Structure formats: C-alpha cells, structure tokens
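User: Predict the full complex structure for these chains.
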Amino acid sequence: MRTTTRKVTAVAFILAIAAILVCGFYRHFVPASHPAIAAFQPGRAQDWTPYGGSWKIFNDSIQNDSEERGAKLMNGSPDWSDYVVEADIQVLGPYGDAGILLRSSGEEEGVDSYHGYYALLRNMNDTLTIGRADYGLDQFVTEPIIPQIGQQEWFHLKFVAYDCDLAAEAISSSSNTRTYAAAHDPRCIHKGRFGLRSFSTSARWKNIHLHAATRKDLEEITGHTTIENITYSPDWVRNAVHFPPVDRYMAPIHREAERLRSDAHIESIDHLALMNLYDQHVVTIHGVVTLAAPELYIQDGTGGIRAPDAILTGPVKAGDQVEAHGTVVSTEVHPVLKHATIRVLSSNVPIPALTATAFELAVGNHEDQLVEVEGILQDSFRTDKRLTLQLSEGSQQFYAIADPGDLSFSNLKLQNGSRLRLRGVETKHIGYTGNRVAFAILMPTASSVAVIEGPSWWSRRHIAILGVVIVILILMLFTFSRRLQNWRIASVLDERERLALEMHDTLAQSFAGIGFQLQAILQETKGSAAAANQVQIALTMVRSSHEEAKRSIAALRPRFLNNADLVDNLRQAAERLVEGEHVTIVTHTEGPVDQIPLRISDALFRIGQEAISNAIRHSHARTITISLSLLANHIRLSVRDDGIGFDMHQNGPGFGIRGMTRRSDNIGGRIQIISAPNHGTAITITADLAPRSSAFERLRSVARFIMGV
Amino acid sequence: MPLCTLQRLSILATVAMSFGLGSCRTPVPTIAVIPPVTGTLLWETMHGGAATEARKHHLHVYWNAPTEEGDTQKQIGFMERALNRHHAGIVLVPDETFAFRTPVQHAVDRSVPVVVINNELGLPSERYLSYVLNDEVEGGKLAARRVASILHGRGSIAILGTNPHLQSLHKRELSLERTLATEFPQIHIAVRKLGDMSIPHEQRTAEQIFDAAHPVDAIIALTTTSLRGAYYARIETQRSKTIPIIGFDQERLPAIKAGEIDSIVIQNTFEIGRIALRNIAAQLAGTSVPERVYVEPILLTRANFDSPQLKHITLFPMFPWSEQ
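Assistant: Here is the predicted structure of the two-chain assembly.
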C-alpha cells in the first residue's frame, strides 16, 4: 500500500514537470498562428490600449491630439509573427513623426519604451525611417522623401515584417511618389503586437488594414530598394560617420520661424473685461489653449477666456500657444471671444493650474482658468456627448465633465466614494452646470483625473457581506462543536468496546476456565462430602462472577452502528443475559427512531440494559417486552416483564434504579416505574427530543450565550 | 540489478528538474536612468554614455522618462517604480529641485545608490548619494570668451533667458558676467531679459532687440527656449543677419553647421552618463565615490562641428539598445 502511494506520487510529479516542459516548448517553438488578424476591426475601441497621448476614434479614423513624445496606441496579439500593416497617415504638427509599430511587446508609457519595430514618417527632415526600439531607438534605415512631407499631407504607409526582414513603403497622396526602405535584422524580434505611434506631433491614421504577410509582400517593396543588413558592432556608434546634410533640416526650421512670427498688438485677457460693454471690440490675444473640446478656452498670465465658434486654421489642442483674433462680447458675466481666428504658434507650453478648494472656486473669480480641485466622487453618468462626474467637497457639489470619445476616459475605472484630484478649466456656464451646482470642471484628458484615495471599505455592501460571513462562521462553529461532541461520545464508546473485548478475552475466559477446573475437582471429590460442598460453593461463586463479568461486558458494549439498532442491541443484550433460560424477548419500535441523537440513545441503552438485567435477575419473568417510540419529538422507551413484581412502597430505589434515574435526568427525561406484586414491572423512560433548530434559532441561542442572557 | 519502476521514475524526474534548474540564472542588476524627457539629443547622448559604461560593469540599464518635459509628477512616478522593482541603482536628472528631495531621500534610506545629475537638490552627499553636474562656471566662461573673440574685445551684448530662481542658470549667468567683467571689461551688457517657456514670446523679445534703434552686437541666450526665440527672430528680421547668436545646451545644432547660429555651449552628457554609471557600479561594489563631479561643457562651432571627437555628442547614439 505504501509502495503504491509512493509510486502514484512520483508519477504525478513527473507528469507535472512534463506538462511544464511541453507548455514552454509550445510557447517557444510552435509557429505563431494568426487566429485574430482576420477579426481585426479598427473601430472597436475596447481592442486598443493607449500608452500616453490623447487618442480618439471617429469615422473609422484614429487621431492623437497630443504632441507629447512617444504616444502609442496598441492592438493585436503578442503571438503575431509575419504580418503587414497599412494605413493612411497624416502628420498634423510641423515638427515630429508618426508611423506604425510591428512585433511590439513590453510597452510602457515613455518615448521609446517598447521592444519592437517602427516605421515612421518624419517631417522635421522629410524622411521615411525604419528602426527598432528596445527602450532606446536604433534607426536602421533612413530614406529621404522627395520632395518633402507637405503640411498635413496624407501618406499611405505599408510596413511588412517577414522572417527577419522588414520593409516599408510610403506613397505621397499629392505627388504619388513612392519611397522605400528595407532592413534585415539578424537579431530579430520574432513576434508581437502592432500599434500606432507619434512623436512630438499630433497625427491621424485611417484605412488601417492588416493581413498575414507572405514573401511576395516583402518582395514588392525590396524589389525597389536594397535591404540594409544591420550589423551589431561592439562600438556604440554604428554606421554614422558624420553629421547628415543639414539642408533637409533648415527648411522645416525656417517654416517654424515664419509660423511663430506675429506683428499684431496683443491684449492681455484681463484687460478685455475692462472694455466698453456696449461696443464690440476686435482684439488679438496670445495665450495657451487649456481646453480644445467641447469648446476652446485660452489662458494667459492674467486670466482665461472662452472662445466659442472659433475658426481653426489647423488642429488645436491643450498646451498649444495660439494667437486668437476675434471680437470681445460682454453680454455674459465673463467676456467671451467670438468668431476668433486661431493660429497655433507653438505647442507643449506648460501652464500651471491654480489649486483651490471647491468652496474657493465656487465663490472666487477663476472662471475659464485652469484649476485643480479635489472632491469625493458621488456618481457618474454618460451620454453620447458627455461623461459627467458628480463630486462633493465640504459644502459644495460640482461636476467634472469629459469627452466620452476619448479612449483614455473610456478606460478609466472610478469608484463612487473615491477622492479624486481633477485638473481642468473651471466654468460656471449654465450649459455645463445646469444651474444645479456652483461650477463644473471641463477636463481635457484622462490624465486630468487622479485617484487620491479609494472608497472607504466600510460601505453598506461590505458591512452586509461581513455580517453574512460572521453568521456563516458562527453556524459553522456551532455545527463543528456538535460534531466534536458526537466524536467524543464515539471515542468513549470505542474505548468501552475495547475494554469489553479485553475483559471478554481475559476475565470471562478465565472464569469459564476456573469453572471447568472446579467441575472436574467436584467429579474427583465424590467421596468427600465436605470437600464437594466447598467446591460446589466455589463453583457457584465462579458462575456468579462469570455472569457478572458477562453483564459488565455487555454493559460496556453499546456498539450499534446507528440508532436504529438500539432496540436490536437491547434485545441482543437481553438474550445474552437470559442465555439458557426460557425467556422470550419481544421488541416494538414506532416512529423514526433512527433520528434519536447518539447521546440520548446511549443513555437509553444503559437504562434499558439495567432494566432488562433487573427483570432477568429478580422477576422470574417469562416474557420481557422492549418498546421504543419516537412520535412528535417525544421519545419513549419501556421495558415490561410479566414477572413477580414488587411492592413499590416497601422497597426503596436501589443502586440500579438510582443509576437509571440519574441517566434519565442527564438527557432531560423522566423515568417511571410501575410494579405490583404478581403483576410484573414496567419501567418507562420518556424524554422530549429537542426540535431540529433552524439556523436562525441556533444563531439566536449562540447570541444569547454570548450576551449572557 | 535491474531498476524498479520507482527508481526509473526518480531518475527521470531528476533529469527533468536539472533542465529546468539549469536555465536559472542570477539576474543582472538593473540601473534605472531617468532624465526629464527622452528622445532629445541632449539626453539620448547621456543614454549612450550610460549604456557604454553599463556594458563594462555587466549592468542592465532601464531607460525611461515622461513623454512631456516638465512632468515632475510622472518623473517621480518613474523613480518610485524603480524602487518598487528593486532596481540596483538610480540615475536621476530631476527637472525640479524641491519636489525630488523626499523621493531621493527615500531611495537613499533604502540603501539604493542614487546619482543626481545637473541639479543640486540640497541634500548632502553621502554613501548612497552623489552628484554629477554640468560645469556651469566653465560654460559661462566659454560663452564669454567666445563673444569676446567674435567682437574682438569690445561691444555691447544682450543676455536673454535669465532666471534668478534656477540655481544652475544663475551659476551660468554669473560666471558669464564675471568673466566679461574681469577679462573683457570693454564688452558691456546692454540688455537683460527674463526667460519664458514660450518660444513666440522669446521670439518677440528678440525681435524687439533686433529692431531697436541701437541694436546690440551679439546675443547670448542662456536657455534653449531663448535660443530658439532669438534664432527665429534672426530668421524673420532682415536687419539681424550680422548679429551673432551664442546659445547653451544642445538645440537646433544644424543651424550652426548652416552658419545661422555662431556657437552653442553644449553639455557633454555622454560623459555625464558614463560617470554616473561608473559611480553606481562603484557604490554597488562598496567603493566610495566623489561627492560631486563636474563635467566640462564644450563650445561647438562650425569649425569643430564635424570633429570625430565630438560625434558622440552631436549625433543621436545608435547603440544596440537590446543589449542594455
């Protein structure tokens, strides 16, 4: 048996190790399949994962509004190996790059924080580049785009990864010229996800397609260019011998210089509020965009202003420094700049937010300015156009409003009861407050929300769950204690059984042996009457002791498999005691006697056994009737004999009766003895079986016990 | 004696386990290098220096930073992440002085070696904290001597981008003015303008200087923003073609080669990164390091632009980052 167990354990261990090795082998060497490429849908927001940036999906195109470095939007399977991604790309800013990632893994927020390949269009030097990032960008091949990447021009970019070869093709939408780049990476990354990426510019992607790559896809590009064989040398600088020609850099620099030039007279925003309320003034302001959607807000060092109906000459986003030329209208409490023509001067201009309490914002004059405030999230509701968070802080309630189309907001998981810190533009405009709260915060991106503290654990739900758990634990404890009690009783019974067997095997056998020897001596001493008499006395004593031993053994053996055997065991005990005598044992049962608890049935057995023993010894009965009934939780055991009976008034309770009475009291029962001379004796024990208590009642009894009631 | 089944299974188990255990390796210590932002020539050069030194000491570099300059909160987050990941050391270029004192102290309290670059946080150097700094004093001297060379020792200049609240910038300007005052007293500072983060604002400021009735003979821009503003103003203002511009820190380097900016005092961030990693390696080995190391900047002009000795600073490093 032990050997078999050891073998089984060893086999299980071997199988576990084999399973681990097989899994590792499969993941490492079995070629990746493409089960999900065909299922790719660019418009399905939940499949995309942003890492930085401000990404939106609309009309089957994807746009990043942020000009931060290295914003990524990832999709696909980490098991994809050879595949092609194509997309139309528009670089919106004047000085950055945008493109496609392939075979990417290990992404984090950061500029080049991923392991994968990158094909990009860079308008700061008008080039197509293929590179590889491993938390640092290694540019493999750079090819000039002739004549240039025009301002917000669309390019079709195709990027192929096949074996360890990478190839990219860029087609200009205006001139239809094609640029090719290809590289072979001997230390290639074999598989990973795909994504979109931009650097220092906002950008748009549309018509994104992907399919499994074949050698033909690769050759369609490499047929037009040389494959650059990448070498990894021990020197840290590879290939670059000198600075590339600067003329490609100068045109974009000069374009930016011209773009930033301004000749207008610039007004400060706080001065606009001092202008004549009745006249309409045409002004030019410089400021930083603090919010681009749903409306444009601009802030300078003196204040902020809303610019509805703005006329945009290009895409505008938060952080852009702009020149706004429009009409100041003072019909509202705060002036607005209407029909402003917006020209972007530069981007990524930091503007500090004013930190204030909700009360200070409610009473203060910070409207249309970038602020930071904390509050407890009470509720949130979403429509097609707006995600609204309702918050409270102290005596104030306010809203925080975001664009639900922004992917980073859709991935935001906020719990009611959390303490949030919000950054955004404060407004008291009725369109946002609904006149229900003092102010609203218009948030530009999901990074405008920070969770300071999660909701308190002590919520109603958690308290209710805790209460249920405590109740269940108490019930389990209760049940366990009952089982423990039963186990204790069973142990005691086991020990008695063992003693009985020991006594049977030793004491009883010895008595029987002594009896036989005495019998033999008696046979030998027929001639001596005195000796025969003494032997006879000894024999009688031995027989009596043997009978006592047998009774004691029987008393120690209440071993019945279940309570249904109680009557049967009483009958067996009776038959052992009357062995050789002509006494009939009759038994009756009524009701579900198998449901009598062990503790009670043990006591009943002892009482019944004593009653039967008394009947056999003293009553000279012919018939002993044993009856057991369980009706409506009422137990009744009776032992009746048709013997000589006794006068109850003259005979006080002996030791046996006192014992029976004590046992009866222990189980909360009552014992009744009815006897009369020549009318036999009836011993009846009755007890009420405790009703099966419901869980609630058991709990109530435990609670009362704890409280001492 | 033939083996019983259990003995055979035990041998098989031992062989299988040995394959698994054989692939276990002692992990390579990782050093987190956290600049204010990545993807710029200034800091990617430091990356190259750090990676080169890390290879010598068999250290792995984790390189990352916020995607927007000035995002102090995120930069602190990167530092905390490095501590949570139990990186062996941290090289930090804080973009703000006061907010980083507590995070750096936390790291030092946990016996994690920290090297702080280009910012004297105010925390004293100690066993696990050292500084590697761009020598602003030397940088100021270089700019002063260059402008004196261009102006032949006499003339007027404008200084743009001053900021009395930034210690490193203040050192730079102080050294510049002291050198001019002591070595070239006939060069006087006609205009001083406070710096701004807005390029258009800096451009307008420079245009006003160029358009003034008595324009200066040269402009020194102390920051990259003021350099760009001055340079763009020079492009747009026809009168400004003869006014040389001297700048600081790697920015618009092609303009030097094109002759549109006279010179730039560039930081040797490659060497800064290399020394920082060397310090970390020494501290991990239990060796003490200097409290402060000052790295001299370099005056980049059209004459030395293509010098092979400078290509590791003027070119984006093309390093096999997969090996870092």
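The longest strand of chain B covers residues 155-162.
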